[in-house]
Amino acid sequence: MDIVASTTDIVENANLLLAVIIPLLGSLAVMTLKNHPNRREFVSFCAAMLLLGMVLSFIPALKAGKTLVYPIFQLLPGLSITLRADGFAMIFALVASSLWVIAVFYSMGYMRAHDEPCQTRFNACFALAIFGAIGVAFADNLLTLYLFYEIVSVCTYPLVAHHQDEESYEGARKYIVYLTATAKFFLLPALILIYVLTGTLDFPHNINTGIIPVSAPGWMVTMLYIFCIFGFAKNGVMPFHHWLPGAMVAPTPVSALLHAVAVVKVGVFCTTRTMLYVFGVDTMDRLFLGIPTAYFVGFTIIVASMIALSKDNLKARLAYSTVSQLSYIILGVALLTPHAIEGGLIHIVNHAFAKITLFFCAGAIYITAHKKYISEMSGLGRTMPFTFGAFAVASLSMIGAPPVAGFVSKWYLLVGSMEAHQVGILLILIASTVLNVGYFAPVTYKAFFGKRPTGQAETGIKEAPLSMLIPLLIAVTVSVIIGIYPNFMMQFVWMVTG
Amino acid sequence: MELLLIKEGFPLLSFLIFLPLAGSIALLFFHGQTFARLWTLLITSLTAVCSLPLLFGFDPASSKYQFAEAYAWIPRLNINYIVGLDGISILLVLLTTLIMPFCVLASWKYIQQRVAPFMFCLLVMETSMVGVFVALDFVLFYIFWEFMLIPMYLLIAVWGGPRKAYASIKFFLYTLAGSVLLLVAIIALYLESGSFFIPEMMWQPYSLTFQVLVFLAFFLAFAIKVPMFPFHTWLPAAHVEAPTAGSVILASVLLKMGTYGMLRFCLPITPDATLLLAQPILWLSIAGIIYGGFTALAQQDMKKLIAYSSVGHMGFVTLGIFVLNGRGVEGAMLQMINHGVTTGALFLCVGMIYERTHSRELALSMGVGKYMPWFVTFLAFFSLSSFGFPGTNSFIGEFLVLAGTFEHSTSLALAAIPGAVLAAAYMLRMLQKVVWGGTANPDQSYLTDLGPREIAVLAPFLLFVFWIGLGPQPFINLMHTSVSALLNQLHHWQQHQQVAAVLWN
Lengths: 498, 505
Prior knowledge:
The complex is a heterodimer of chains A (about 500) and B (about 500). Helices cover about 70% and strands about 5% of the residues of chain A. Chain A has about 500 residues and is mainly α. Chain A has a domain at about 290-500. In chain A, strands 1-2-3 form a 3-stranded mixed beta sheet. In chain A, a hairpin with a 2-residue loop joins strand 2 and strand 3 (about 80-85). In chain A, helix 16 (about 385-400) packs parallel to helix 19. The longest helix of chain A has about 35 residues, at about 165-200. The radius of gyration of chain A is 21 Å and the shape is globular. Chain B has a domain at about 270-500. Chain B has 19 helices and 3 strands. In chain B, helix 14 runs antiparallel to helix 16 and helix 15 (about 375-385) runs parallel beside helix 18. Chain B starts with a strand and ends with a helix. The mean pLDDT of chain B is about 90. The interface of A and B includes residues 75 and 195 of A.
């Protein structure tokens, strides 16, 4: 792996800056087009397409074994704001940019069908959240990562508080308190201590060495590690996960964005980036940090699944499902074997596409049938076959059944846990699969085979509007495609593990 | 006098000190409101422009006092007129001169009564503030230091809010109490060293008892000015009652004099006492950070909130100074500038809302964001800067201070972290209320958004927020040599003293 690292060409490329700035410019343009809804949405769409194109344009260089970097600001020696595109960054950048394209369409359909107020603010903040997410993806050091992480926190507050009623203010308050307090309390000291210890915050170009010197005292490194795990509270690891169900008050496209792209994925991406590129596999092995982390997040996997079982509100069930699934990613990386790391990282992609489908479905059901609770959805599948069909396929991905994408991650994770000789982890994965079936299968089953509640036989409910149906069908198709042809995304994961 | 780089030709520093004073004389004879405003704007702008050559002529590689001027004043008492500038004072002088035109602009409509006397006070303030930062003779320093009290007292007592009498008297008594001991210390030092020339008082082998006494006298005077917990109670009262320009001057410049004094006098004149007493001062700083944070969190009055946040922020500055290492001191000095920029701007913002709603109550400003988008955009950036959002100026200042503190002691630094969390809490609380409010906002539809004058006032502050936040290196370069020289001497002194202790015990 060292050979790979040393042959990596590091090329400066200003397009990286452009890629990060596109959503920012998109957001500013949206703000100026307050009175022209169609042009506003068109601008959002153009920005999303441009971003996707820009991200895709980095692929050839990466395939040629290069790493793209672009320094923006040098603050102090070893402390800079710099962007970087490597395999790891691409995993997340591709997810965020491609899902933005789909989400622009979907939220246009949702927001207009629902006649939501303040759509300009909504679209502008949506773009700003993507700006933060892309910045996180392309961060070359811990400071840049932290900067964009905080930008995401601040810019998604207006999205969560969108309805401006008691409930949404309460949810948004919880959201911002959890996220900024953990970041300030854990991350800031960790950042500074790492800088004091090493004189730099720049990520190395391999996952083994990390930047922590071997001479650093073990207790301090362990403390820093724990700070980093809890500091990125967007990763939803218990006990700092409460903000996520609280944020369910937001409009459904926001939930979809929060859960699939901008927020929770930023959290796990930051966590895993820090685990692999700040501490590194060697340090984590030496201080025996991996396996305890795996068991710690294993607890979250199981408990969150059990809570999900008990929720009747569809969005709440999906929220706890997210809490549980995110920990898969951290669990995989924490096992520190190549297959487990690959399984964890590819789950960033697989979970994103499946979860955004599920939320899109929940939103479509809410807009069309005005139903929030699973118990009210009996028999609805017969009138909304496409929506519930997509829901069924996406649940299969969550469960980890072939040929949908989730199977790939689960396969790698299972192989990885065996490689690590961790029977306990294997059992956690199996138990959680059973639990996943337990809380996803009944939704689909009841929708298609359940009896309609009496008195609601003919409510005139039809399929969701096309502007919502098409995006969700695209998302679920992608889920299936990357389940059958996983190599397109796996190539970036392999770049990480060498 | 090898410590001074005497400036030949035009006496720039004296010009900067006395131009505002000379300008103020005109206001004694002409009382027209418009004239007073324009004239003061002209004078302060001229001072600001003329202070820029300091930046270009300053040699950052030298730790000497530059642009120095020395004239005999009262030779019998060994009192001279000596001024000079080094890396520790240059940024503060520039901060003072650059911020004054904005104070004038902020008072444009705010002050409607007795405009000419108000502007007169501002100009006299500027003279004494610049004087304090460049004076190198202790008597001269003391004169400027005390001279400042009167116009500041008048600013609060005449143009202040409802409780102006209480606030101004409290401000006056607190600062005066500190100053008296400062005078005693100055005279004691003169008797010991035989000179009022500040650099000659430094690094002298005074006895430890003498040093501790002098240090305590200095410390009390400066700690009141900073203000450090528990000497801070005058600050919220003064801030709340002062007019906007008064609050801005108070926050941006006056508070810095305390920390400037600590760096300029405590460290080099009484090094042993500094080393001896640093530890309790560090913990006092932590107490201030935490106390200021919690108190700010409970405030309903926006000016009080920002005033208490100043207590917390200045706690970071004293923390950085007394960890006595390069990162800490440079961070502290950067944080002094940052606090001047950010808190000054926040007071300007509160002043703008006060001009509209005639209230500083948070509850009455709820939901302003809907009608004043430009205003809340500025407020949001300044609030983010205030709690150290990465990419803004305070982040880099706090980062350096905390990095220095971690080098000194991990537990101390960890104790300061809750202060950073609290800062985010009270700033976001204020921001949330002003921008969004709740479900029962008061009717704000009569509000008008910022005008061009107000945007022109706030925009330069925003520029500096990001300039320092994203490119702090030029600012640090200015101070670096002076700070390292100071710390080198201090640590050299420490070793020297340890050797002496080994030899004599």
